[in-house]
Amino acid sequence: MHLPWCVKKCPYCDFNSHPLHGDLPAEPYIAALLRDLDEQSPLVRGRQVESIFFGGGTPSLFSGALIGNLLERFASRLDLAPDVEVTMEANPGTVERDSFRAYRDAGVNRISLGVQSFDDEALRRLGRIHDGKSVTQALASLAHAGLDNFNIDLMFGLPGQSPEEALDDVKRAIAAGPAHVSHYQLTLEPNTAFHRDPPELPDDEVCWVMQAACAEALTDAGFGQYEISAWARPGRRCAHNLNYWRYGDFLAVGAGAHGKLSDVQSGVVTRWSAPRQPRSFMGRERVFERRVLTSDDLVFEFFLNRLRLREGFSSEDFTGRTGLDWTVVSERIDVAVSKGLLACSGEQFSTTELGWRFVNDIQAMFLP
Ligand code: SF4
Questions:
Q1: What is the pTM of this model?
Q2: For 94-102, what is the mean pLDDT?
């Protein structure tokens, strides 16, 4: 569920986010979201929805009342699992003391907080609108709401950052008591201000030192790494993201949102995406892009996603998600095993410690 506006565009951001000029067009946007939902909900009749993710953009620009209203409409159109995970992304600097209480009362049971760093100077260099004080306030608001299932998003490899500073961010995040930490290295993506005018970043060796030190701190604090950038306390992995990485199905509601559905009977897997510009998305003549995945797409996409996970995969997972026979990939799997990149235990394959450092290379073996 994509809510695409932000107070300001961050210079490193390549998400479909748009700076908000003037008032939030909440009413027409919600009307367009509900149109999406009405069109898509029949596609999942007979299936239970296990998670809802309000992503962005900055969903916390929407009030608790609006989010509650949307969740009620969802519940009337979809079969929600009794323990449905409802995550909302929020940014410090856009939340008040009672904001999270209002989101909790609306039905949100998991928050993902875009902290990125606790350090004022690092945040300024990243072009964020918030500072360390707003992070502290947002964390206090979360505690006030009693929302203990929350994620802290952190970035490392920031302009001018030292390994000690990166580690300090992780230690401060751990001290805040999150259930989950997402720890991403800053990358310079095309079509961003940082790509056009790159800041000086720590080199690869320094980033490796940071990553190793931060991983040790997270492990010592009781977090388990279950995906390249995702760390969770026991039982607190993000159900929504796990579904993507396990190559599951999902609906797409909102500007630029992408969906994927498998038709078990026909074996056809379809992807679609909505117009990226909120104005086009809210218009009457909006055009969605749709595409049926080929066998080559299915093979690559399955491994692109599954290889991100520590838990690995089995031949049964592959056939269940793609409808393809294991022999389509078995030779390539054997090569990865013989190179020491994958390990095989019975029917289960997982990435070795060596392979974990070369995930891109293993993924590339499954390109057509
Ligand atoms: S707040 Fe997040 S989504 Fe918005 S511009 Fe910054 S990085 Fe992008």
A1: 0.95
A2: 90
